[in-house]
Design brief:
The complex is a heterodimer of chains A (237) and B (617). With 237 residues, chain A is α+β, with helices and mostly antiparallel strands. Chain A has two domains: 2-108, Ubiquitin-like (UB roll) (Roll), CATH 3.10.20.740; 128-231, no CATH class. Chain A has helices at 19-25, 79-95, 100-108, 128-137, 169-173, 212-221, and strands spanning 2-6, 9-13, 49-54, 57-62, 73-75, 143-145, 152-154, 181-183, 187-190, 195-201, 208-211. In chain A, strand 3 and strand 4 (57-62) form a beta hairpin. Chain B has 24 helices and 20 strands. The longest helix of chain B is centred in the C-terminal third of the chain and has 19 residues, at 529-547. Chain B is globular and about 80 Å long. The N and C termini of chain B lie far apart (67 Å). The chains are: A alpha+beta (237), B alpha/beta (617).
């Protein structure tokens, strides 16, 4: 068991845990947009910056990818932390002034109209979609494209991603809700990636419940599941 | 190539190579580095070969194409040995004359000699030229003596003797001690003590240890590593093999930019010859050391010079930095202990082993030992690659080696450290090149870029240039770096367009802090340096742009107007002829005028005027 302090309160952590997760588990409020407990920490949004003292050195660092270490002291709300966080929010707000989660953060931290030219991007490049697709789903249908100010997320060559199974995990984790999923009786479309797949009907109740392609993929990656399991919708299984 | 399987065999072969060579045999040495190639040195080489054949002299006179001599300003450079006669700006039409006059009749061709800019005196020998005289070319000097594709040439000048000594006389731990005592610090920018890094890597637990040579040089205007790898790849490889022995590694990589085709070619040739003779592979020199080196070509992203991004790229992933709470030496490529050093750092290693710690530490300053290669570019007379002992001050480099500023203009600042570095104003020109002192004045050593700026250089424009570079080369992962550099660029662009506002300087400073503190890797952490250092030393210039809408250096197009001086204009029409937008009117032999509404401020008229009549206001 690793022991360290957050804002003076002693907390306990397991080997391999990160500071942000420990803080959240103990009820500390640290804003974060690119972190999800099911995924590898990435450190892109820079919102979860805290001050960490290790030995005799104190530094501003992101807590999501900082390992829980014995004896460190974490400060979540110092003047420096707030100053850094406010600038991150201002930069994000200038990029995406119409995204609710960013607007809420701006309000919470009293960040007014950004001092920069306003953009209108709905994606903040947190990379959650890319990680969930790679780490959890395992199909790597999308990735980061380009670099610097031209960076974006999309399928390779920005054309209909052939490996996308249409599961919608990317849309589920997206904090800005910029990946839309449209669905009807016959097909499901992941709008942002331009991927449309035909739906399978439940052999019991007849309801469309998931794309064929997704269910085939699940069948291939799972073991010991009855062959007709994927023919039935979750309600009828 | 014969197998070299023991230290004795290496010495025998060295004697054999040297013995078969006549030191007095005339040799035409042609610089074939990138600079001279750009000036057409390949045609010069071909022409020499043709002419020698015509004269039937192929057997009596050698032709050697070497790596970069450093004096790129004067390329193509040809040195006639054994007398060391230095000819500059040689073209194919000079080759016959060089053979008949210099080689056959021992006459020096005055026209091709270097002329001392102050005394007007013609200088015959390379070593007597002021550009070379002030240098200490212990790493770079061999470039001019060898054909980089010939392992024999490298062995003939003592090559691989340091490896032989290492494997015969020292244990790996003793080698690490030597490197630690030498004070060698990483030449790639960080300046971390190499020996300490080696030791941590050796002691890190892992199934396999790796050594990597970082040849992903990407700073605008910098080409030291390129020229070293092109001109003397064996010195880098020898350093890596010694490092592998010390660290306990059996596999190494050279990560080199694909945009450096000659470096890739020469280093691949060098590796192939090492494998052929057994200096790479199993049981090197009979010592039991197994080591192999592979070449990996980078795709041109500046950020891939950053160690964690480089490792990601080597593994075949997107070149993106990772958090470094666990050090690279413990968990690098494929999560194994990895020791990464830059090209120049590796090239220092054989020198330290051969010449000893006492000799090496006698060069340089308290905290920075040895020499450093800089690419001296910008507004300086002698553009080129220079190697100087640490501790030499910038003024000496610019004036004594660099020959001062062209057209008698005034030195304004020197930018060191590339996009991560900063500008050092003229008033601080006595600052020595030393890792810590350069950081003290707000710049950094970096990998060795040195850009000289004269009084016609605008500091807002300079900061804008670097920020434009960085916003495009940031990997884009961190919000602070991606959005921050973009916003800083936008503010700088507005200032140079005359749209600067009160508070812009403060906003730039605020952003600089957030980007430096809040970014994951060194690219973001140092990205604000060009802005911060120009504000620190040239705040008045920023204020002139913002408050008076004036660019004191006359660079920012939106803030200047071109006009023609009545006194000086002869009405020759040269300006009118070159103006691309027909903004200049005037009859022959009469005063010409520029229409400011049509003028696009390209400066073509100013460059064309021979009478100093075009002025910038």
């Amino acid at each position: 068991m690793i022991k360290f302090t957050i804002d003076g309160v002693e907390v306990e952590a397991e080997e391999g845990q990160n500071v942000l997760q420990v803080a959240l588990d103990n009820g500390f409020d640290i804003p974060h947009l690119c972190y999800h407990e099911a995924l590898e920490p990435y450190g892109a949004c820079r919102l979860c910056q805290v001050e960490i003292t290790k030995g005799n050195r104190t530094r501003l660092t992101t807590s999501c990818n900082y390992p829980a270490l014995e004896g460190i002291q974490v400060q979540t709300g110092t003047e420096k932390v707030i100053k850094a966080r406010k600038m991150v929010i201002e930069l994000l707000l200038a990029r995406s002034p119409n995204v609710p989660v960013i607007k809420d953060l701006a309000e919470e931290y009293s960040v007014g109209t950004p001092r920069f030219t306003l953009g209108d991007d709905d994606c903040i490049l947190c990379g959650l979609c890319e990680r969930v697709c790679r780490e959890i789903v395992g199909v790597e249908a999308i990735s980061f494209l380009g670099r610097g100010s031209d960076r974006k997320v999309g399928p390779p060559l920005e054309i209909n991603p052939q490996t996308c199974i249409g599961c919608g995990a990317c849309a589920y984790v997206c904090p800005t809700d910029c990946i839309k999923v449209e669905e009807n009786e016959n097909e499901r479309t992941i709008v942002r990636w331009g991927r449309t797949l035909p739906m399978k009907k439940c052999k019991v109740c007849g309801r469309s419940f998931a794309p064929w392609f997704q269910l085939d993929y699940f069948g291939k990656i799972t073991e010991g599941i009855p062959s007709d399991f994927w023919d039935k919708c979750p309600d009828c299984r | 190539m014969k197998r070299i399987d023991s230290p004795k065999k290496l010495e025998d072969i060295r004697k054999e190579i040297i013995g078969a060579r006549d030191p007095d045999k005339p040799c035409i040495t042609i610089c074939s580095g990138t600079g001279c190639r750009a000036f057409g040195s390949e045609n010069v080489t071909e022409s020499f070969r043709k002419e020698l054949k015509k004269h039937g002299l192929e057997e009596t006179i050698d032709v050697r194409t070497t790596g970069c001599h450093g004096f790129c300003e004067k390329g193509p450079v040809v040195v006639i040995n054994p007398h060391g006669i230095f000819y500059q700006k040689v073209s194919p039409k000079d080759t016959n004359e060089i053979i008949t006059e210099t080689l056959l009749n021992n006459k020096v061709i005055e026209r091709l000699l270097y002329t001392h800019p102050e005394t007007g005196q013609k200088i015959v020998k390379e070593s007597e030229i002021p550009f070379y005289k002030g240098q200490m070319r212990v790493i770079f000097g061999n470039n001019g003596k060898i054909d980089p594709t010939s392992i024999d040439d490298y062995i003939a000048i003592g090559g691989y003797s340091a490896l032989s000594i290492t494997l015969t006389d020292y244990s790996p731990v003793e080698i690490i001690e030597i490197i630690k005592k030498s004070g060698l610090r990483g030449r790639g920018g960080g300046g971390f003590p190499a020996g300490v890094k080696w030791e941590s890597c050796r002691n890190a637990a892992g199934n396999k240890h790796y050594v990597i040579c970082n040849a992903d040089e990407g700073d605008p205007g910098a080409y030291m590593d390129r020229s070293l790898l092109e001109g003397n790849p064996h010195s880098v490889l020898e350093g890596m093999i010694i490092g592998a022995y010390a660290i306990g590694s059996d596999e190494g990589y050279i990560y080199v930019r694909n945009e450096y085709p000659l470096a890739v070619r020469n280093v691949e040739i060098a590796i192939a010859s090492l494998k052929e003779c057994g200096l790479l592979g199993e049981n090197i020199l009979g010592s039991g050391l197994n080591f192999d080196i592979k070449v990996s070509r980078g795709g041109g992203a500046f950020v891939c010079g950053e160690s964690s991004a480089l490792v990601a790229s080597l593994e075949g992933r997107v070149g993106e930095p990772r958090a470094k709470h666990i050090h690279r030496v413990e968990s690098g490529i494929w999560d194994q202990p990895t020791n990464l050093n830059n090209v120049e750092t590796w090239a220092n290693v054989p020198l330290i082993i051969n010449k000893g710690v006492d000799w090496y530490t006698s060069i340089g300053t308290e905290g920075s030992k040895g020499t450093k290669i800089f690419s001296l570019v910008g507004k300086v007379n002698n553009t080129g690659l220079v190697e100087v002992p640490m501790g030499m001050n910038i003024k000496e480099i610019v004036y004594e080696i660099g020959g001062g500023i062209p057209e008698g203009r005034k030195l304004k600042a020197v930018q060191t450290g590339g996009p991560s570095g900063g500008v050092i104003p003229e008033s601080l020109m006595d600052v020595p090149v030393d890792f810590d002192r350069l950081t003290d004045v707000g710049s950094m050593m970096g990998s060795g870029g040195m850009i000289v700026m004269d009084d016609k250089t605008c500091m807002v424009d300079t900061a804008k240039y670097f920020m434009n570079f960085l916003r495009g080369e940031s990997c884009g992962k961190c919000t602070t770096c991606r959005e921050g550099t973009q916003r800083m660029y936008e503010i700088l662009e507005a200032i140079s367009n005359g749209d600067g506002k009160e508070g812009d300087i403060e906003l730039l400073e605020e952003l600089s802090w957030a980007v430096a503190e809040g970014s994951l890797c060194a690219l973001g952490q140092t990205a604000p340096n060009p802005v911060l250092s120009t504000i620190r030393y040239f705040r008045d210039e920023y204020e002139a742009h913002i408050k008076e809408k004036r660019c004191p250096a006359g660079v920012c197009k939106a803030l200047i107007t071109y006009s023609i001086d009545e006194e000086n204009c002869t009405g020759c029409g040269a300006c009118k002829k070159v103006c691309p937008v027909e903004a200049i009117t005037g009859e022959k032999k009469e005063l010409h005028t520029i229409d400011p509404d049509k003028c696009i401020r390209c400066g073509a008229c100013m460059a064309a005027c021979n009478f100093d009549a075009v002025k910038v206001v």
